[in-house]
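FAQ: What does the model actually see?

It sees only this:
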Amino acid sequence: MNSCEPVLERYAIYDSYACRKGKGTTKALERARAFSRKNGWYLKLDIRLYFDSIDQKILMHLLCNRFKDQQLLALLDKILASYLTSPGKGLPIGNLVSQHLANFYLGHLDHWIKEDLQVRYYLRYMDDFILFAHTRKELKMQLDSVCYFLDKQLKLQLKGNVQLNRCGYGIPFLGFRVYPHVIKLGAQSKKRFRETFQKYDRKYLAGK
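And it is asked to produce this:
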């Protein structure tokens, strides 16, 4: 990855986050808030069983477009073949190579959304992505196009929790709720924090 990362980095769009220097959770949340101030509506999507659904043949084809060294490509092919969730599918979660390649795989979607769909306000954090627009109708049309592209080009499916709503109501993103002028902890994150804190409190009182 020390050799591959600069090449993958050059391919990534500006608003692709995760597994990139200076492009972590905080930056993604700040960018989502900035976009929500400029638009009235958002469309938030994420991929169903993303790592398990990545098509290794398509991924290798995309990698061949970026790298020409045959030894490197053979090594990447060998790494991919070492893990399968079903024939020709899957990347192991947690593997450093997998994180970079998973981010790269959806880079194909990023470029299509920015260059073909001409969506100005768009960002992605791994398999969570948000499109912004001034009207609900515009995003509804884009949703159909995104579903078609994912299915035909990357053999991926969206989760059923498609969220199309006004930015003013808050955007659930990365465990937070993003409003145009503030970012708050999400309900589930707040619940997990409370439960964990109470567990530590009980242990402390018990002398553990």
